[in-house]
Amino acid sequence: MGGAVMAVSSNGTYSFTKPNRESITLLAGLGVEGDVHAGTTVKHRFRMAKDPSQVNLRQVHLMHEELFDELRESGFTVAPGDLGENVTTRGVDLLGLPVGTLLRLGDEAVVEITGLRNPCAQIDDFQKGLLKQVVGRDEDGGGVVYKSGVMSVVREGGVVRPGDPVEVELPVGPHRPLRIV
Questions:
Q1: Which residue range or ranges hold the MOSC domain (predicted)?
Q2: 131 phi, psi to nearest 5 deg
Q3: What is the mean pLDDT of each run of 10 residues along the chain (181 residues)?
Q4: Angstrom distance (rounded) from CA 95 to CA 91
Q5: Annotated domain spans of the chain
Q6: Which of 44, 98, 125, 174 shows the smallest number of beta carbons within 10 Å?
Q7: pTM of the prediction?
Q8: Which of 10, 22, 126 is nearest to 78 (CA)?
C-alpha cells in the first residue's frame, strides 16, 4: 500500500497558502525546517492563544491530491500548497488511515499520523464556499466528515521531494480512527 509525493510546500511566515518547493527537509520531533509551524509545542496561532505549551501534533500537514480533483468537479480551483499543506500525496487514502500510521516519505523521512486537520473559516476567505466542500456529513447524515488532510509528527528526518514514494505502515493492535488534533 503506497503512493507518491506530488508536491512539497513550506512557508516561514504565517499565511494561508504555502509556496511549492523543490524539496523540504523534515526534522525529527520538530517538523518542516524553516516552516512557521515547526516546533515541539503548538505553532497554530489559535491554539497558541489557548495554551502555548501544548505538544505540537501538527508538525507536518499532508493532503491527498485526489481532493483537488473532487473540488474541481464542484467548480473550485485548488493546487498543492493552496490550503496550507506541506506534503501533497496521490494514491494514499490518508483520511482512511488510523492514528499511529507511519508514512515513509522518500528514502529517509518518516512521519506518524496524529489526526485530522480541522479546517478553519480562512478557507472561505481563500475561495467562498470552499469550507462546505471540505467539511461535510457522512452518508448517514449524522457524522461530520473532514476532508482537508491529516496532521503528523516527524519520527525520522530527511529530505522529501516531489516524485518520492510514500510507503504506509499500519500500527500494530487495534486501530484508532482519526480525530481532530
A1: 18-169
A2: -55, -40
A3: 93 94 98 96 80 92 97 97 97 97 98 94 92 88 89 98 98 94 92
A4: 12
A5: 2-169
A6: 174
A7: 0.95
A8: 126
91-127 CB burial, b ≥16 within 10 A, e <16: ebebbebebebbbbbbeebbbbbbbbbebeeebeeeb
Alpha-carbon gap, residue 46 to 52, rounded angstroms: 10
- Give Cα 93 distance to the centre of its chain: 12
| 2-169 CATH | 2.40.33.20
- DSSP codes, 115-137: EE----THHHHHSTTHHHHHEEE
| 164: CB partners within 8 A, 6+ apart | 4, 5, 105, 106, 107
Residues making up the chain, counted from first to last: 181
Is the CB of residue 43 less than 8 Å from the CB of residue 149? Answer: no
Look at residue 169 in the predicted model and tell me its pLDDT: 97
C-alpha cell at 164: 518520492
Q: Alpha helices of 45-85 — where are they, by DSSP H?
A: 45-50, 66-73
Residue with cell 468537479: 73
